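To make this tangible, this section ends with a sequence with its structure tokens:
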Amino acid sequence: MTKFTQISVVCTAEAALKKLKKSQVGVYNCKKAGAEFAFCVKDKDLKKVFAIFSNPCYNIRVENLGRRAGFLKSVVNRIGLVVGAFVYIQNKSQRQRKLSHAGSKADNLRSGCKRIQYVREV
């Protein structure tokens, strides 16, 4: 399944489509709203689109990222949360290993020990 990114450019629709066609970039879901021309391109063509509209006379912005790119951006924005969760999971699994290992040592000690009775002197 192909992922799409929505882009908005302050440009005439004809000029934008002419430039994109010349660079062989597929354009989907075109809309004209005022001075802005909004359209979707495949994620793999996103770099081409920015190279095409790199002149300072064009204002270009990404309206909506594709699913994969949006997910990666949110992970990068929350890198502290991801690292913290990873460290927590690692510490939790280490604690469980230590507890299970300590339990097996205690069982070994119990099997070798005799019962000790304490006598209280009066």
Observations:
- The helical segments are 13-22, 46-52, 67-77, 79-112.
